[in-house]
Amino acid sequence: MKSRLLLFKFEINYKEMKLKLFAIFLIMFGLVTCSKDTYDTKPTLKFESVNATVFPQPSVIIFKLQCTDKEGDVVDTIWVKRVSKLEPCMYLDSAIGFPIPDFNPSKNVKADFDFTYNYPVDVTGNGGATMPGCTNGSASLTDTCYFEFWMHDQAQHVSDTVQSPEIVLLNQ
What we know:
Blueprint: H1 2-33, E1 44-50, E2 54-55, E3 59-69, E4 77-84, E5 95-99, E6 109-119, E7 129-130, E8 134-136, E9 139-141, E10 143-152, E11 162-163, E12 167-169
Parallel strand pairs: 2-12, 6-7
Antiparallel strand pairs: 1-3, 3-6, 4-5, 4-10, 8-9, 10-11, 10-12
């Protein structure tokens, strides 16, 4: 009789344990699969890639960036700064603001940007931003630099600054 009572208690405990484990599994599954809105009021900017790290003349340099914003008001300004590691080329270091075209973003926007420079002249015939080569007097120099990017949204919230890898601009 006692052994039968012990078996009965074991079966009850076993079923309760399975039920508790199943409940824990459901809670964990819900936490993993239910994502909340992760976009912030302040826009975020992420550096994705650049099409190369060494550029002869003439070249087209394409930076790929991604931004997110909770309000979707990212259509204001993106800033780009070239930072040279070569002292004679530091005169080229300046921040330039470019307007972001109005693309009618919605709230919780995630947008990809391609930012293109022509080095040192417009090789595409499409206009666009042209990046001058580095010179020291009349001699052209090979420049090692990197680029910093940040943006403002329409409410003047400023994203963090992101940086490209080092880029070599050949003098040729």
